[in-house]
Every structure is written in C-alpha cells, then in structure tokens.
Design brief:
alpha/beta
Amino acid sequence: MLAPVILAASRSDKMRRLVSAAPGTKQVVDRFIAGETVDQVVPIVEDAVGKGLEVTLDVVGEDITTVEQSYAARDAYLELIDRLKDLGFGEKAEMSVKLSMFGQSLPSPATTLNGEPSGLAEQFPGGHELALANVRPVVEAAAAIGTTVTLDAEDHTTLDSMFAIHEELRKDFPQTGCVIQAYLFRTEDDARRLAENGSRVRIVKGAYKEPVEVAYQDKAEIDKAYVRILKILMNGKGYPMIGSHDPRLIAITQELARRAGRKLDEYEFQMLYGIRSEEHLRLAAEGHRMRVYTAYGTDWYGYFMRRLAEKPANLLFFGRSILTKG
C-alpha cells in the first residue's frame, strides 16, 4: 500500500523540498489548489456559484510552528470573509478551517479567550485555548455575512479538542459544522452524539496515517463503516454533508435520504476541487446541493500529499507529469 508511505512523506521537510522542486509538480498542484491568493480564488467561486454549485474554502497551511503564524492564519480567513461579503453569496460560500493552523498543535497555551481562560485549558493542554481564541472571530465574521465555518478533522489525537471547540462555538453559532472520519473506530459514537445535537456534519473516509489501534485499515471495512455512519446521520436531527467521490456511496446516500424522508435541501454532497468536476454539475442539475471543497494558498504541500494518498490515480497522474517535464 502506497498511501501510508505518502502520508508519512507529508510530514517530511526533505520530501517537501524534493516534491516542490520536481518539474511537474506545479501542473498537478494546480489541479487541486485553486490559486495562491484571494484574488485568484474569487473568480473560481463566482464561476462555481454561477453554475449552481456551492463552495467551502480552505486556506491551506496547517503545519505552523509559531503563535505569529496562527494569527496570520486567522487574518487570512478574515481577509477572505471580507471579500466574500462583497460577493453576497451567503451560505453558498462557506469556509473550512483546520484548528492546527490556528494554533491547536502548539506546545503551550499562548493566549486565552477574551483575556480569560475558557475553563478547558486543564482538560486540553497545549494550543487549545489559542485555537479557540483565533477561530472565534472567524466564525463571528462568517455569521455576519450570512455564512458559516466547518471545523476540519485532523489526526485522531486532535479530535477531542476539536469537538470541544465545536461545542463551545455552537453555543453562539449553532450552524458551525464539524467533520468526522469513517475509518476511526470512535466515529459511530461521535456521529450519534452530533446527529442528536442537530449539528452540521461532514463525513469523509479519512486521510491521515492512523494506527491499527484506532482505525480500520482495510478499504472494505472503511466503506462499511461509512455506510453505518451515513444511516446514523440521515436518521438524526442534524444536517449531513457527504464528502465522497465514490459513485456507490453517492447512490447509497440518495437511497438512505429517501428512506429517511429527507428533502434535497436537507443534506448535501461535497467533493474536492479538481476531482470529478462533471459529477459536480450532474448532481447540481438533479437538484442536489453540491459543494466543492476549494483549497488555496501558498503552503499547499500537506494538503497536496493527502490528495495523492487518497487515490492511486492521483499519484500516477503526478508521476506522468514529472516524467514528461524536462
């Protein structure tokens, strides 16, 4: 299996330099990354919405090492929201954030919420308080222009902190979403809790290298878990967001939604920018809410490597691009 090797490489500075310098890298990166700046991504958002699609925007660059970088990440999202305000798309253009980018993974608390600890610092040491303090103004600004934020899931060690921040934000902004990963053993229990709470929940298969103690390793087992979790979400009180390109899982989703009596606007599909673009348009034409996960920014390496790991065809495409560039 190449995926574990690629995921391990996503954390390697040496591999980052090698991949970045490869002649064919830019061609492949451009397939998955919508641009480096807000100015470059805005026309892509306008084009998508004009075609009946919706978007969730991700400013890439979760591998930060300083508090100053966490503030820069916060400000990058605030700049994005300021531009989205002018477009007036409301919930058609939401945002996805990785809390590690907001300081969650830093080794010690560097700030507190509104100058005071939120009471979670003891339970979640490290950068939990910093991440909460940084993400709150982004969620507030998003709500002010009629849209929202979804908290992305990262590796399993970060999830308790992520869910705690999600719960805290939902007290004032109940539309705040979060992500669950089907390959983790814990996820069915997480899904039940979130479905009962009426949360917006994106379900994905999972794209991090996880140990056998916490995650399914076999693709068939992951798919079975995905369907079990889908059933929980569809029969719950929340709003399911189906993150998959798998035609079989898309068909199963439609059937489960029908059985649960859900209308087309009571769930949505989400797919990555640059992958199965014709399917995006087909689902939208059928009346489904179809949201395109659109990443942009200069620190693309970690995101890019996870896309390669998810599907062998992506790696083959990358390999051919390198070989054909001189």
